[in-house]
Design a protein that fits this description.
- This protein has 323 residues and is α/β, with parallel strands linked by helices.
- It has 11 helices and 11 strands.
- It has a 4-stranded parallel sheet, with helices on both faces. Strands 6-9-8 form a 3-stranded mixed sheet. A two-stranded antiparallel sheet has the order 5-7.
- It is globular, with a radius of gyration of 20 Å.
Amino acid sequence: MNVRRRISTAALAGSAVLGLLAVSACSATSGAAGKEDGKLAVTASFYPMQYLAEEIGGEHVSVTSLTAPGTEPHDLELSPKQTAQLGESDAVVYLKGVQPAVDEAVKQSGVKHTADAASFTTLESHGAEVGGHGHGHEEHGHEGHGDESGLDPHIWLDPVKYAEAAKGVGKTLAAADPKHKADYEKNTAALVKQLDKLNQEYKDGLKNRKSDTFITTHAAFGYLAERYGLTEEAISGLDPEATDVSGSRVKELQGLAKEHDVHTVFFETLTSPDMAKTLAKDVHAKTDVLDPIEGITKKSRGDDYLAVMESNLKALQKALGAE
């Protein structure tokens, strides 16, 4: 996540003009569709934000994600049409620090009702190692959050933090559409209850484990590790597509795998498994998927957030000897 493609203000302005022309020429954009059918037109930045908007908005919203399924969200570049659609939205749900192009577009859009999920919880600085051997540094409030400041944006992989984000999104949708406030509050409460249940399942499911340490391709699971007393060791840092891993880090991981009896190296669905497979071969371990749920595809082990989180729990139980 260290290197991000940025969109200049001028480019955004130009994109908005082009996109708005496209909207007037063809009313098939999602923003327009939402308003035509009387629903609140909500633009979500990527899948975890889309899931919150859909679950909380229910029948009152028309949600469109800026990130197509199977696309690595951190690399998103907005088309003129997407920029225009965002500007036409009744509400935007995003996570500042994941997608700089979206952050800039939201700032330029003038949309009144925006929900930055990162602002509803606390963020921490996470490196390649998080948990038992060394804890992250907690940061509070709105300022400076996001991966560019070294803060970890992967809050959705911690059910407790995700529930905090859900409450904030619920309030934003209620402010954008006061007429259906009661339904948004009811849906938020139902989702928070499901996330509380998921949190308890993780607590119970990982209780009697033989090991605390798991190895992943990139450091997406820091909050999850800290929540359940685990240690995440990532081959690369917060950047999911880093390939320049030092020889000393590989050697360190080989030692940690032996020391902590690690039998599984996890890779992801949207990025290359090569680094994980190479390390696994070196330490005579198996590979398995631990999904950061940045998008749902045919390869996903489940058709929505909760289902994939359940699959992740099973994978961790197996890897940590908690079956």
